[in-house]
């Protein structure tokens, strides 16, 4: 296996990790205003992701950095081409990031409500936009012979990409609701459970629409062959099982299944892309691939060593942090404001 | 308006704003770690209270630093796509390592620190804030490895087709002498930013005779020592940087000094009004030999002037203007050094007071101690403006000009750039207001509010 392929896999891993982890904290942020109107309850909802969300977001920062280092042309074409979408994403990430810290630091209903809605919008917008972005990776965007994006903002907002955006938005929201059932007790737990059950049907439906649309709109399935293999099928099965598990009050398993569904969908898209990283809709040979977009062998070698040493260390201490905060948040929990 | 100008304006806006928050994170995290360690070792309640108090201010500041940092990472690709293609092979590496080694550490252990008071043993809890401090200072190291390549490129060769620079020696990049002069300077700048904020807030509480007087005396003692050490280190590191810069980027030194002609011994400008078009003085007061001393630790030694360097660069790189904005370089240098000098004065004043255990302040001393928290901000910002503006017209010194680095106008239009500048300016304005409001609220409320 060449180094380019290893880095394609590593970036797939980073995006998968990001979508699983930040996916549920996007979901929790989206559900915040709908879980309760009581201030203490809302703080409890935020505290379910309080110790984690920032660490989860670093998965994105690392994916961005890895893209820059391993595939500079992918990074350059994508970030300059998807300009307005990324601007919107940055605004959202800024709003939610400070909101988590600022909302409880001042005791005024208008102040808190402002930041609560910042968390909602700041979580919903990226949850939608990531779907839009992934769809455009695979559908193809106008990229010319010198690797420059030539479309506008509205090129990105095609119906197919929006369908994917709605699918990712709904899946992340469901994932967040299931996470909340795991982390809460009593009324909050009941509320989260009922939200999760209600969200399951639209999330599943939108994902099916997206999958069908992908068949028509992209070459992903042709790329994967007539038999798309176990991964996309398991992604669908995992999602289907969620409602059964929720009905049995098996929150832990339901969470594993939403995580698997997100992971396997992400992997399916990256598998369909391989060895391309951005598909050109103008000419197939203008597509960016892991070869024409990559760094030198020397740089990829250095990065590989760094990643092999440090990714496991990060996984160990991040898992440890989840273990420390494994207890559910109850009515009597002391909430760090 | 052309996209180059707008992209530069946006970079100036977002990076200067981001760097209002970073140095406090660097310096205050270590200060809090010291406070908490003192609590673990002595068991004295005041140290725990101070840990929490400074922790609250730290978190308010940290949040803005994090979110404005994401903008920086995205911006290279968004506005500077040609640059990203040109240096990604080198520049991307420290950025990725920064995320992997530093940001994960910082964010995960900050989560543990904030929410782990009841879940971790005392010593383990104190260890988490040390790891936060380590993480944030490591992030400074890696971003400076990246920046140092722009200032003084090493460990690379040009690709066969000349389209990009490629890394040939990672250890040369990491052990670039520029890194090891710039990194201590930035970290020490962080210590001063934390130290003077501690001095300012503690002195304010002592002057107002708020109820936490005893704890804020302790706080002022630590702050005075901390700020003094930071100021000494920042000056020392700055001095070594100057000695390197005169070799690697002589034009930056000449511009910072408005030194038109080469001089031996070279004089240091106290105050110059110059004519930038004709490259000559209108009026100038200079200390003879002082610049040679700063550059070589000796009152002898030639420092090259702007005219000679311009002629040299034309020979080496072809026709063009290689002189940065002199007024910017000259005054940013003076603001930095001026703020640094006042910092030393303030730190000595604070030290004198705490050594004599005299906690009553005359209005003048009080004002000096209180307003001193602004000085590191002035020095940090003007230092970076000198570092970046003084390097122009290069984005990577000697390799790539800034005008070649911007995203093509066909991809990122001036309209998009203008829109994003307006959006960032509005949001950053709001963030600044909210941040200052909260910092002021918690700083003045005292220890009980942080419980």
What does this structure look like?
- The complex is a heterodimer of chains A (337) and B (451).
- In chain A, helix 8 (159-183) runs antiparallel to helix 9.
- Chain A has helices at residues 3-35, 39-49, 53-70, 72-81, 83-102, 109-139, 153-156, 159-183, 186-217, 220-224, 230-247, 251-273, 297-324, and strands at 276-278, 288-289.
- Chain A has 337 residues and is mostly helical.
- The longest helix of chain A has 33 residues, at 3-35.
- Chain A has 13 helices and two strands.
- Chain B has 451 residues and is mainly alpha-helical.
- Chain B has helices spanning 3-42, 45-79, 81-115, 122-151, 170-174, 177-207, 213-248, 250-257, 290-296, 306-317, 326-355, 363-371, 374-389, 414-445; strands at residues 156-158, 165-167, 268-275, 280-287, 394-396, 400-401.
- The longest helix of chain B is centred in the first third of the chain and has 40 residues, at 3-42.
- Chain B starts with a helix and ends in a 6-residue tail after the last helix.
- Classes of the chains: A mainly alpha (337), B mainly alpha (451).
- At the A-B interface, helix 3, helix 4, helix 5 and helix 13 of A face helix 2, helix 3 and helix 14 of B.
Percent helix of chain B, as a range, is: over 70%
| CATH class wording of chain A | Mainly Alpha
So how many helices of chain B?
A: 14
Main sheet summary of chain A: 2 strands, antiparallel
Strands of the widest sheet of chain B, in order across it, are 1-2
Q: What's the multimeric state?
A: heterodimer
**Uncertain residue ranges of chain B:** none
Main sheet: strands, sense, barrel of chain B: 2 strands, antiparallel
Rg of chain A, Å, rounded: 20 Å
H/E element string of chain A? HHHHHHHHHHHHEEH
Strand content of chain B: 5-15%
| Total domain count of chain B | 2
Instruction: State mean pLDDT of chain B (0 to 100 scale).
Output: 93
What fraction of residues of chain A sit in β-strands?
Answer: under 5%
How far apart are the first and last residues' alpha carbons of chain A, in Å?
49 Å
Distance between the termini of chain B: 51 Å
Mean pLDDT, all residues of chain A: 91
Indicate how many domains the architecture of chain A comprises. 1
The proportion of residues forming helix of chain A, as a percent range, comes to over 70%
């Amino acid at each position: 296996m060449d180094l380019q392929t290893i880095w394609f896999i590593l970036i797939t891993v980073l995006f998968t990790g990001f979508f699983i982890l930040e996916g549920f904290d996007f979901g929790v942020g989206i559900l915040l205003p709908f879980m309760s109107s009581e201030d203490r309850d809302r703080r409890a909802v935020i505290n379910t992701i309080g110790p984690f969300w920032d660490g989860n977001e670093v998965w994105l920062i690392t994916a961005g950095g890895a893209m820059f280092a391993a595939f500079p042309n992918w990074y350059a074409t994508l970030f300059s081409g998807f300009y307005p979408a990324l601007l919107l994403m940055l605004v959202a990430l800024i709003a939610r990031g400070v909101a988590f810290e600022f909302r409880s630091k001042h005791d005024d209903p208008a102040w808190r409500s402002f930041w609560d809605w910042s968390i909602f919008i700041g979580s919903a917008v990226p949850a939608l936009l990531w779907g839009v972005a992934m769809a455009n990776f695979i559908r193809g965007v106008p990229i010319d012979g010198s690797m420059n994006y030539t479309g506008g903002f509205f090129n990105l907002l095609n119906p197919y990409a929006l369908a994917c955006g709605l699918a990712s938005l709904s899946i992340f929201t469901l994932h967040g609701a299931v996470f909340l059932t795991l982390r809460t007790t009593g009324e909050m737990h009941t509320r989260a459970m009922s939200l999760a059950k209600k969200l399951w049907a639209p999330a599943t439906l939108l994902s099916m629409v997206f999958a069908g649309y992908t068949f028509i709109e992209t070459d992903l399935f042709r790329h994967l062959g007539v038999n798309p293999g176990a991964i996309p099928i398991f992604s669908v099965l995992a999602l289907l099982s969620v409602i059964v598990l929720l009905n049995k009050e098996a929150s832990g398993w339901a969470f594993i299944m939403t995580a698997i569904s997100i992971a396997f969908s992400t992997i399916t898209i990256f598998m369909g892309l391989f060895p391309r990283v951005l598909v050109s809709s103008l000419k197939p040979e203008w597509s960016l691939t892991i070869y024409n977009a990559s760094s030198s062998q020397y740089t990829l070698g250095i990065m590989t060593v760094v990643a092999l040493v440090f990714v496991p260390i990060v996984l160990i201490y991040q898992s440890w942090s989840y273990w420390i905060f494994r207890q559910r948040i109850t009515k009597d929990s002391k909430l760090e404001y | 308006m052309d996209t180059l100008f707008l992209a530069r304006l946006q970079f100036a806006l977002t990076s200067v704003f981001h760097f209002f928050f970073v140095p406090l994170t660097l310096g205050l995290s270590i200060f809090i770690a010291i406070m908490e360690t003192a609590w673990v070792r002595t068991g004295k309640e005041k140290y725990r209270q101070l840990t929490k108090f400074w922790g609250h201010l730290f978190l308010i500041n940290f949040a803005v630093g994090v979110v404005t940092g994401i903008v920086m990472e995205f911006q290279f690709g968004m506005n500077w796509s040609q640059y990203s293609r040109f240096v990604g092979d080198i520049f991307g590496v420290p950025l990725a390592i920064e995320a992997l080694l530093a940001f994960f550490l910082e964010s995960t252990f900050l989560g543990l620190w904030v929410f782990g008071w009841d879940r971790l043993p005392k010593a383990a809890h104190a260890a988490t804030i040390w790891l936060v401090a380590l993480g944030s200072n490591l992030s400074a190291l890696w971003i400076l490895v990246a920046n140092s390549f722009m200032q003084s490129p090493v460990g690379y060769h040009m690709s066969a087709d000349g389209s990009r620079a490629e890394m040939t020696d990672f250890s040369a990049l990491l052990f670039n002498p520029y890194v090891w002069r710039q990194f201590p300077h930035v970290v020490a700048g962080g210590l001063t930013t934390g130290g003077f904020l501690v001095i300012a807030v503690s002195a304010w509480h002592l002057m107002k005779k708020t109820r936490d007087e005893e704890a804020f005396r302790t706080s002022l003692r630590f702050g005075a020592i901390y700020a003094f050490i930071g100021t000494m280190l920042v000056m020392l590191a700055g001095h070594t940087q100057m000695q390197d810069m005169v070799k690697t980027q002589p034009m930056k030194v000449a511009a910072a000094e408005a030194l038109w002609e080469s001089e031996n011994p070279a004089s240091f400008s106290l105050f110059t009004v110059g004519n930038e078009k004709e490259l000559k003085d209108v009026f100038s007061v200079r200390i003879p030999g002082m610049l040679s001393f700063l550059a070589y630790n000796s009152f002898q030694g030639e420092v090259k002037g702007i005219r000679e360097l311009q002629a040299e660069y034309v020979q080496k790189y072809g026709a063009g203007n290689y002189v940065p904005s002199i007024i910017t370089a000259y005054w940013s240098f003076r603001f930095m050094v001026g703020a640094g000098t006042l910092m030393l004065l303030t730190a000595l004043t604070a030290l004198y007071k705490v050594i004599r255990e005299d906690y009553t302040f005359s209005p003048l001393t009080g004002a000096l101690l209180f307003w001193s928290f602004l000085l590191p901000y002035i020095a940090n910002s003007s230092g970076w403006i000198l570092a970046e503006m003084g390097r122009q017209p290069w984005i990577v010194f000697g390799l790539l000009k800034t005008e070649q680095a911007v995203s093509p106008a066909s991809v990122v239009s001036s309209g998009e750039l203008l829109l994003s500048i307006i959006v960032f300016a509005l949001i950053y304005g709001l963030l600044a207001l909210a941040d200052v409001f909260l910092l002021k609220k918690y700083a003045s409320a005292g220890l009980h509010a942080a419980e």
